[in-house]
Write a structure and sequence with these properties.
about 625 residues, alpha+beta, eight-stranded antiparallel sheet, 26 strands, about 35% helix
Length: about 625
């Protein structure tokens, strides 16, 4: 990968078990996606001399060992490979989180790998050991908050050391900038190894040490006991369905490593090659970097009825869970790889909307604050803080897209009453939306929002397609006629003098990214003329800054997901390449070293709050075209 990743994925399982670094891997300790340190120390001992390959050399104010130099860092969809060398050996470290989307069990099993291997560079035989240490920061919200303890054990394939908070309050709190402080970390090694505990930087830590007989496999696992509080009932992670416990899961992961690593490599290669064919090499690198982030910002659980729930977290936006207008932009990755995961995000929304807890005629915004999934927390009782047109459009579009991808409209049939109610809401209020929020709520409310009107139009189209597939042809045609009427209204009332289209109907010469129109291309409904897309792209190029086109003319903010959707308006490729190149440059040059941010300043290259969010799944939309 030529891209200098703003953050390098090491362990990526879920919103709590998420460890990252920068290219200064052997100068600084890794960190959680929130930026809080998650100290892991890696030492390679060569003929009795220690060299550091991961973490800081300054501990307790002293330089403890020299570092081994980094030759290269390469990142694909599932593996981060770092090559180190000195005058004696070349060391290869491969961090793999096998989150293969088509396999629900692998999407849930909380085990991540580190394979270490080496070769001699000086022609001599060497005695090489590796030691990996994990600190209490991986099992506490904040270091030192309570006493941590550990114990050693052995499975069939691995030996391990287990570490956890001495005070186990499972599912005790929710929020955004917090880390897990319940459950247990397991540091394991396949085959023979030594284990122990130590203190460095005033942090309790556990370690595993083993000889590298050419290579050694270490495994990181986290058993969170219970994962999600769903309607006040603790829910198990999906992996429990197929496994007798965490030790069995680790043993299984160790035994299948070679086979699974080959599958991971094939998956990553296929993603890259497909993205190059559909777009270009820069696009392929963006998808390769985004993949693990998107998958690991979710948690797959089973509720008390045995149904799947795929819980997203709004990382550094407010910590909301199962947010509809976060599912909407993230959907392309799941429409492409596994619709079962998308279904597990939207079915719980239908369940909630049917309950007595939801009193409105439009769709909900969220189901809680991670990991509590008990009902909407975003302005739950305040009509002025809702996103009525936004969420109605999102839910209908998502349902239609999912059903079309599966060629099965059972989900729509099951929830037809709600979908019809929400579609009627769009018919009533969608042609010219009143002053309300949309998904870009950080920009504030906006009346007469043209892009929101397009979402309403595509929501009405989506419902028409649902009705058509349910053999309700007369009703389908009626809704399609409304959509066509609203498109005609839009094209007349939103037109600027230069042929582009406005941010709001009453704001002459304004502009905005009309990303919601992408469904017209995906579904080949052809409601919007070719001239609309051409004029919009011309305006986007004219308004572009160093790192992309602003979301609209009010400021220099933009969103990476929406930029990519807008880039897909292009049928020839040059405009797509233009926008992707600017996005690639942003991630390559940004100085904020965090997992991919999606709310960016396209003039300065700053990341505005949002990071590690699932919405980067929207970058995969080109693969659907």
């Amino acid at each position: 990968m030529k891209l200098r990743a703003p953050a390098i994925p090491l362990i990526t399982i879920d919103p709590y078990f998420s460890v990252w670094s920068t290219e200064e891997l052997n100068d600084k300790f890794p960190y959680h996606w929130t930026g809080s340190r998650n100290s892991i120390l890696g030492i390679v001992e060569i003929d009795g001399t220690e060299y550091r390959f991961l973490g800081s050399g300054i501990r307790d104010g002293k330089l403890c060992e020299e570092k081994i130099d980094i030759e290269s860092i390469d990142i694909d969809a599932l593996t981060t490979k770092i090559i180190y060398s000195n005058n004696k050996i070349r060391l290869v470290a491969e961090f793999t989180s096998p989150l293969i989307a088509q396999d629900l069990y692998l999407c849930s099993r909380p085990v991540s790998y580190l394979r270490l291997s080496y070769e001699s560079l000086d022609g001599k035989a060497h005695k090489v050991f590796a030691k990996v240490s994990c600190s209490e920061e991986l099992v506490l919200n904040t270091a030192g908050q309570s006493r941590v303890w550990s114990e050693q054990g052995k499975g069939k394939e691995v030996s391990y050391v287990k570490m956890g908070n001495g005070t186990q309050n499972v599912l005790s709190n929710c929020g955004d900038d917090i880390r897990i402080d319940w459950g247990y970390l397991y540091l394991s090694a396949k085959g023979d190894a030594e284990f122990g505990n130590e203190v460095y930087e005033n942090l309790y830590s556990v370690w595993a040490k083993a000889e590298l007989d050419s290579e050694k496999l270490f495994l990181f696992a986290y058993d969170d006991i219970k994962s999600i509080l769903y309607y006040n009932k603790p829910s198990d992670a999906y992996w429990h369905k197929n496994c007798n416990g965490i030790i069995d899961a680790i043993d299984e992961a160790a035994a299948e490593y070679d086979t699974l690593k080959s599958k991971c490599d094939a998956f990553a290669k296929d993603l890259y090659q497909t993205a190059v064919q559909k777009g270009n090499e820069q696009y392929a690198e963006l998808l390769s970097l985004a993949y693990r982030q998107v998958m690991a910002a979710h948690k797959l659980v089973v509720d008390d009825k045995g149904d799947l729930l795929y819980v997203s977290k709004e990382c550094f936006s407010n910590g909301c869970a199962v947010t509809v207008d976060v599912t909407y932009p993230s959907a392309p990755i799941f429409l492409y790889y596994n619709t079962a995961l998308l279904k597990a995000m939207i079915e719980p929304i239908f369940r909630y909307a049917k309950s007595d807890d939801w009193q409105f005629d439009f769709a909900p915004h969220d189901l809680g604050r991670y990991p509590f999934v008990n009902g909407q927390v975003y302005f739950p009782n305040d009509i002025t803080g809702q996103m009525p047109v936004e969420e109605c459009g999102n839910m209908i579009i998502l349902t239609a897209a999912l059903c079309m991808a599966e060629n099965d409209f059972a989900l729509a049939q099951k929830n037809l009453d709600l979908l019809e109610k929400w579609s009627k809401y769009l018919v009533m209020f969608g042609e010219d939306p009143e002053n309300q929020l949309c998904t870009d709520d950080f920009a504030g409310k906006l009346a007469h929002n043209c892009n929101l009107s397009i979402k309403a139009i595509m929501g009405i189209v989506a419902f028409s397609k649902i009705l058509e597939d349910l053999s309700k042809n007369k009703e389908a045609e009626e809704y399609m006629l409304v959509a066509k009427k609203y498109v005609k209204s839009f094209l007349q009332r939103a037109l600027n003098n230069d042929g582009s289209y406005r941010l709001a109907y009453d704001k002459e010469n304004s502009f905005s990214l009309k990303y919601n129109a992408i469904w017209d291309k995906l579904w080949n409904t052809n409601l919007f003329p070719k001239s609309f897309f051409e004029a919009e792209l011309n305006r986007y190029k004219k308004e572009a800054k160093s790192y992309g086109t602003p979301l609209d003319n009010r400021c220099n903010w933009s969103k990476t997901d929406w930029l990519l959707w807008a880039a897909c308006f292009d049928e020839k490729g040059s405009n797509f390449d233009f926008i992707v190149n600017k996005m690639w440059n942003f991630f390559n040059e940004t100085q904020k070293r965090v997992p991919m941010g999606d709310w960016i300043d396209v003039a300065t290259g700053a990341t505005e709050m949002f990071q590690n969010r699932t919405v980067q799944g929207g970058l995969f939309i080109k693969l659907l075209l």
